[in-house]
Every structure is written in C-alpha cells, then in structure tokens.
C-alpha cells in the first residue's frame, strides 16, 4: 500500500463495486455509496468467497481448526492428528491424499456414494487405495465438537439417519467457492459457475487476462480457469498490469 500511494494510487476503504457500465468510451464502476469511478481500463481481482457449512461449533472453532486449503503449512499444524476433509471434488481428494502423508487418520466426507462422480477416476482410486483414508459416503457434518479445541465431528448418515462422533483435530472444508461477480452479471461473459471468462475463452483481444470488453481485465481466483493459489494470483496480477499498459498505449491513452 505504501508503494501504491507513492505512485499516486487512490484508495476507497471500505468500498464496494456494484456495477460496471460503459459511457463515452470509458468504463464506469458504480459504488455502493452511490458514487462512481471512471477509468480507461479496469482490472477485476475481486476473488471468491469459500463456501462454509452452516453447523454448530463452526464459529467457535473456525479460527483455530478449520481450513479452506491444504498446504504444507496446514499439514504441519495437524502433525500426527486425525483430520476430516469435507467435499467430493478433486480439491478434496487431493487434500485427503496430501494430508495422509502426515496424518495416520484422514476422514473424507461426501454426501453421495460414488466417489468418482465429481472426482477424477485416477484420484478416486488413490483415495480408495490409501490405508490412511476413510471415506464416509452418504454422510454430512452436523456439528463440530470441542471446547478447549477441536475434538470430534458429528457425522450424519443420510440413508440410515444414524449419527456418529468421529475424532478429529482439524476440518478441511473444500466444498467450492462462489466468485464475487454478481455485480458483473450481464456485463461480462461468465462461465457456468460465475467465474469471469478471459483470453481465448472470452474471444478477447487483450491477451490471456483480457475479457470480451476491451480494457477490462480479470486476474486471480475470480478468473475462470485460474489455479486458485496466492502465488499464481500475484503472478497473474503482475502480467495483467503489463497488458493494461499495452492496451492504454495502443489506444493512445497514456
């Protein structure tokens, strides 16, 4: 932020973009406070909101024992403790396999009975073949249990209606994410999940981070097909800024 101020950047904190329109060849970003910003170019980096389970105990334990990604950092925190992963997609399967390298007990909770339904077959096979991973099919998390720390997760079996408390010290919630793109509906092409289409997928002419609307770019988690990692988002932002400069030069606006 210090560097940005040094180069003359202006900040609107707190600020919320609510619309994107065009007027007289410029892009107009509407703001929640009723104001607007007029720009030659717009770079959208609004990210995503990771989906959360609405269950008792989450608010109490979220800061210390609930994670939305499984990296080396989280794996070290879990040490040799039993952990639980919620989700049936590739992200959940990859997390379960990764965590099984350290934790002797990894519980994978899915709401249906077919592990290969939403997960690549090769990955589903790896999960099923791991002696450290237990797949809880047709199940859902009903409660996080623990006062001083996370102790157990209450699982509900959807077919039998049975409930079981399972020891766990950390919960990895990998049930998808919703991009912050509601304010762009009807203005930019989005994929079926609401992520912004860029590059060839958007028939754009401003490079791989350009959208169909000339002068509007998107980077990071909000972009369709992005890697969803901090390092990747930072790299995308750096490259996209160069593309913004190239666009401004081509348009004679620098």
From TrEMBL:
Classification via InterPro entries: FAD/NAD-bd_sf, FAD/NAD-binding_dom, Ferredoxin-NADP_redctase_2
Signal peptide: none
Claim: rRNA-binding is one of the keywords in the record: no
Catalysis: reaction(s): [thioredoxin]-dithiol + NADP(+) = [thioredoxin]-disulfide + NADPH + H(+)
FAD/NAD(P)-binding domain sequence ranges: 32-237
Keywords: Flavoprotein, Oxidoreductase
PANTHER family linked to this entry: THIOREDOXIN REDUCTASE 1-RELATED-RELATED
Protein's UniProt name: FAD/NAD(P)-binding domain-containing protein
Taxonomic lineage: Bacteria, Bacillati, Actinomycetota, Actinomycetes, Micrococcales
């Amino acid at each position: 932020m210090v560097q940005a101020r040094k180069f003359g950047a202006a900040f609107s904190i707190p600020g919320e973009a609510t619309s994107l329109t065009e007027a007289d060849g410029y892009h107009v970003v509407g703001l929640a406070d009723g104001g607007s910003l007029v720009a030659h170019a717009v770079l959208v980096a609004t990210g995503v909101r990771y989906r959360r389970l609405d269950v008792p105990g989450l608010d109490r334990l979220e800061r210390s024992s609930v994670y939305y990604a499984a990296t080396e950092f989280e794996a070290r925190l879990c040490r040799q403790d039993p952990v639980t992963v919620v989700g049936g997609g590739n992200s959940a399967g990859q997390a379960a396999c990764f965590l099984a390298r350290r934790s002797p007990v990894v519980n994978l909770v899915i709401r249906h009975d077919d592990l290969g339904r939403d997960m690549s077959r090769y990955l589903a096979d790896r999960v099923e073949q791991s002696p450290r991973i237990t797949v809880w099919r047709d199940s859902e998390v009903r409660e996080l249990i623990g006062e001083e720390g996370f102790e157990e997760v209450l699982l509900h079996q959807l077919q039998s209606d049975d409930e079981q408390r399972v020891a766990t010290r950390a919960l990895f919630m990998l049930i998808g994410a919703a991009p912050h793109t509601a304010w762009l509906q009807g203005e930019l092409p989005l994929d079926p999940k609401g992520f912004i289409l860029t590059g060839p997928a958007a028939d754009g002419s401003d490079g791989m981070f350009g959208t169909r609307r000339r002068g509007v770019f998107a980077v990071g988690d909000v972009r369709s097909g992005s890697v969803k990692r901090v390092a990747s988002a930072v790299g995308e932002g750096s490259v996209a800024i160069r593309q913004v400069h190239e666009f401004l030069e081509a348009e004679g606006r620098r």
